[in-house]
Amino acid sequence: MYLLSPRQSDIVTLAKSEGRVSVEGLADRFNVTPQTIRKDLNDLCERGVLQRYHGGAILASGTANLGYEARRKLATDEKRRIGLKAASLIPDSASLLINIGTTTEQVAAALRGKHGAAGDYK
User: Fold this and answer.
1) What is the pTM of this model?
2) CATH fold of 6-64
């Protein structure tokens, strides 16, 4: 196994701290072309350090447990849409138990505007 380049090492550090990295964001950050970043990401994925998704990469499963804050940054738009859709299916003044999780957190946030939501009572 050979060593990571300084840029690849920085990419892994960013992925650990932010949960995911994007090709465009990394290209801007390191002032290189997106093709250069794609090559770095593909190399890191071949080594099993990262896992590619369209437009970027995340830490490969099993590499490290992502902390809650890092997971919050993964697929945030998708989680927000799920939360809004789920909240739209729940009638006003309903009682719910919601487990801990970054997606269910978005459900709870979307429920704040519902009539009868916690804090809605005077």
Assistant:
1) 0.52
2) Arc Repressor Mutant, subunit A (1.10.10)
